[in-house]
Amino acid sequence: FGEYRMSMLSNDYRTHCTSVVFPQAARTDAYQAVREAVDEGRQAFVVFPVGESGDLLGPDDALRYAQALQSEALEGARIGVYCSAMSREDRVRVFEDFQHRRIDVLVATTFIEEAPVVANATVVVVEHADHHELARLHRLRGHVGQGLEPGQCLMVMSAKPSEDAKKRLTQLSAERDGFKIAEMDLKERG
Q1: Confidence at residue 56, expressed as pLDDT on a 0 to 100 scale
Q2: For burial by CB atoms within 10 Å, which of 101, 124, 146, 163 has the most?
Q3: Does the pLDDT of residue 31 top 80, yes or no?
Q4: Helix 178-189, helix 134-145: angle, nearest 10
């Protein structure tokens, strides 16, 4: 044990994942990318942050949001909801439906970051992206950066993001190195 060895893990995704930041006023552009992916037979995530007291969206709010998406931006798409307030059995059932392509778009909270990668899911829209930690955003885009096709991480800011949040998201969208992102995240959170 007198000799130490250092190894470096490559954190390059198998396929490329682009990251784009959208102001709230342009959020329909992000959903256009979801529409295109679904039309091409691929799947997508729509992710909301988790607040200190739990999910930003409860199950009822998430269902209303999913219904609004289905009637406005994603007509004809099969949309499912996954949040921590649901029973474990319901979450497992919904995620299995997503894995087996019975759901096109999964509206979820950030708890989805711990779920297995679904290779056919190539787009993630992260709502209120300025409220997420950098490391979490990087993990979420990893869910669509490891599939069979190039991925897209579309970060939609809240209505009034701070200048620091805008700068931070711009930096994240340009950086792919997980170690550098961890350093940025540590510096930000102290």
Answers
A1: 61
A2: 124
A3: yes
A4: 150
